[in-house]
Amino acid sequence: MSGDANALDRAALAPYLEAHIPDFAGLSAIEKFKSGQSNPTYLLTAASGRYVLRAKPPGQLLKSAHQVDREFRVMKALAGTAVPVPDMLHLSSEDSPIGRMFYVMASENCYTYRSTMFSRAARTEAAARGAAPARGAAPPEPAGRAGFAPANGFNAAGPGAGGQQFLRALDIDTGKIVWEIPQTGSSNNYAGTLTTAGGVLFYGASSGEFSALDSKTGKHLWAFETQEGWKASPMTYSVNGRQYVAIAAGANILSFALPK
Fold it and tell me: What is the pTM of this model?
């Protein structure tokens, strides 16, 4: 074992996997993926094939955080639907050979499809080939979404839709809503807010816009369309006396200089 807290003990893991995954044999290498840092992810090479192991991070965690068991259950339930998922092979308990919960799935040769890569016609064609679900298509109700999210998401309309998401400003003395902005688009939004000393609030809208508002009134000041999902909250920094605001959008880091 190395000093890396994320390193896995191959000698301890191999017999466990052979006992719990049918036909698994001959674990020879474990390679950690560079991505998937929230829940460390590894490529397992064995005589019986290649597999992917995804685990909770080491250390003390909140009970509701890093629920890899939820990932496992949802993807296992999606098997046989129009949503392409790998074969889900095993979910461990917290008392596992690596000291934390993990699951193992098949390693698939596949491509990552993003909605911004295709025109509407190309997305429809890809869905017809079975390469990717059509944009906006919800998986069938039996697909294991129960207990996680409404079938049509939180910002959708019509039967099966969940609640509406809002960006809200609250009066901390009274708890009353000062202003609010309803969100449209994907409910899978990891962006928080950032407010400058000058009272400009930046946030990643669920519609894909990086937006600026007047923090006191909620008045729209500026927006930059990205058509990407938000991976983190905005941040600010200064270079040579000039203030910048940056945010992670999809695979990109976008940075904008504030007016002098």
Answer: 0.47
